Amino acid sequence: MSHTESCMVRQLQHYASFNEREIELLGTLERSPEEVQGGATIWQEGEQASEMAVISKGWACSYYTLEDGTRLILDILLPGDIAGLREFAQSAHQAGVRAVTDCTICRFPYRHLGEVFDQSGKLTRVIFAAAATQQSIMVERMINLGRRDAATRIAHLLCEMYTRLSRMNNHMKLQFRLPLSQEVMADVTGLSTVHVSRTFTHLNSEGLARRYRHQIDIPDLARLKQFAGFSEGYLGIPSIIDSHR
Fold first, then answer.
1. Pairing mode, strands 210-212 and 33-36
2. Paired residues of 96 in beta bridges
3. GO: which molecular function terms (predicted)?
4. Most exposed among 111, 150, 174, 203, judged by the fewest C-beta atoms under 10 Å?
């Protein structure tokens, strides 16, 4: 893997290996970097959907605003993720996207993705796999909200974030940065901010996970996964495209 490869390439290499031409094609989606401050809206739900955006640096989230004005976070978008991928066939954005931290994003129109598809069947399959994984994450989020208690919701989210981050870092340790505020954690788990704080206190007392500001320490990953009922299969099968050639 070259040190010049983008976060998006490293993310998508979970599904397949790429040659130089394929890496160049993916690079055409990151030609217009734009700096976005943490907390800024990238686009709002209901706006015309004619573009996507690669989160080249930083963290963002996709969200839906409920009728009472509260917010439900559908997904946390990490460096390398493509925002708006699920809405490729939609005329309007079904979810808003907001920067969680300071971000660098690269917007691109739908037609650019179509051009990549025209030139590479392999990248078409890889992007489809990434979109399917995003959809699976949303399904798992629904299960989290409807069938898990507060402690297992938080534990499951920590396992998911660790697994997704470890794909970008071959030397991932069990202590990692999770730059999510109490409010964001509440909106992604369907809990109150007070409940989030109490739940972390409980996980800490049980020796499952510790949080220090934005640092997470997992003493025993296997035990945390067992407690959360976490299975990473919904996050996509490694090298799925290469194995089906």
1. unpaired
2. 63
3. DNA binding; DNA-binding transcription factor activity
4. 111
Token pair recorded at residue 33: 């970097």
Is residue 1 in some structural domain? Answer: no
- Closest to 49 (Cα-Cα) out of 86, 106, 87: 87
CB contact at 8 A, 15 and 236 = yes
User: pLDDT under 50 in the chain at which residues?
Assistant: 1-3
Alpha carbon separation from 43 to 28, 50, 184, 240 (Å, rounded): 21, 11, 18, 32
Assess whether 210 and 137 both reside in one domain: no
Which pLDDT value is given to residue 106? 96
Q: Is residue 98 part of a domain?
A: yes
Could you tell me if residue 92 is inside a domain?
A: yes
Domain that holds residue 117: 7-142+237-244
CA 42 – CA 62 distance, rounded (Å): 10
Residue 93 and residue 173 in one domain = no
| Residues 175-196: tens digit of each pLDDT | 999 999 999 999 999 999 999 9
Summarised one tens digit per residue, pLDDT across range 154-163 is 999 999 999 9
Same domain, 92 and 21: yes
CA nearest to 82, candidates 99, 107, 102, 63: 107
Let me know whether 131 and 155 are in one domain: no
| pTM to 2 decimal places | 0.91
Burial category of 245 from C-beta neighbours within 10 Å (exposed 0-12, middle 13-18, buried 19 and up): exposed
Instruction: Identify whether the C-beta of residue 93 lies closer than 8 Å to the C-beta of residue 46.
Output: yes
Pairing of strands 41-43, 33-36: unpaired
